[in-house]
Amino acid sequence: MSAWCNSDIVLGIRTVNAHDGTTRRAGDPGYGRGTSIVIAIDGAVETRGIKMILRGALGQKGITGLETAIVLIAFVVVASVFAFTILSAGVFSSEANKQTIHAGLKETRTGLRQHGSAFAFAGFEGSTQAVFKIVFIVSNSLAGEPVDLTAPYSTDDSGTDPDVVSGSTAATIVSYADENQRFSDLPWSMTFIGSNNGDTLLEDGEKVEITVWLMDRSTTIAVGSNSSISFMDQSTANGGGVGGINSTDALIVKSTRFVIELTPQLGSPLTIQRAVPPGLRNVMNLN
């Protein structure tokens, strides 16, 4: 026992050959091809060491339970991270699609819809008869969001119409185009028809009559008389509008095809396509 206690403790791993009983240590030729593995904690006197012998079949291979657990844990972790990434991407995509759908519905629900017919009114510029305004009725489509119809002009059937509204901040734009010309921001006025709450927002159940002004109207002269209408001089100082037909533009006469577009601040525009009848009258139904 004294030899054991005074000696250094050495951990050794040897293999025992099944045929001749010889032993080999790690690093010796043929190490690892034995039938038995001897794990020994030896002292100076080897015979007094502690020996643990694990016997197995020749050439047996395998992995330990610890290695298996590590592989399984790694697999579970990778699978969990991958699943979390996929689920996160799916949730984000679904939320983005939801927002897009709601935005599209809002755009659709803030549109305008025309009611009934559109009418053209004609007068005389000098002695030439021409269209000077177009009138139609609109409502809120699909009972959607209110549409701001604060008009830049008004009418009072006095002097020259239309009359500019001082300080107006119109959010809705009216444009006009035919085969000869295009006006991107025409003067327009509006009047509520039927029940309304008194503001300038077109809401569910309300209707508004829109008047698009192409030329000035001299209200002191009968509409069927010469010079009852005039070109817009691009100044509101003496009444009338800005942005319509002036002396260098073409008059809107019989058989003229045109497009009017009413574009609110939010939502899709309302497009009206019509043609002036072959014979001009003071009031013409364009449907």
**Average pLDDT over all residues:** 78
Sequence of strands across the biggest β-sheet: 13-15-6-5-20
Q: Which ranges are low-confidence, i.e. pLDDT below 50, for 5 or more consecutive residues?
A: 1-19, 31-60
The value of Rg in angstroms is: 47 Å
The portion of residues forming beta strands comes to 35-45%
What would you call the shape?
elongated
Total domain units: 2
Helix-strand sequence: HEEEEHEEEEEEEEEEEEEEEE
Structural topology:
Layout: H1 2-6, E1 10-16, E2 23-25, E3 36-42, E4 50-55, H2 65-109, E5 112-125, E6 128-140, E7 147-148, E8 153-154, E9 160-161, E10 163-164, E11 173-178, E12 182-183, E13 188-193, E14 201-202, E15 207-213, E16 216-218, E17 229-230, E18 257-263, E19 270-275, E20 283-285
Antiparallel strand pairs: 1-2, 1-3, 3-4, 5-6, 5-20, 6-15, 7-14, 8-10, 9-16, 11-12, 11-18, 13-15, 16-17, 18-19
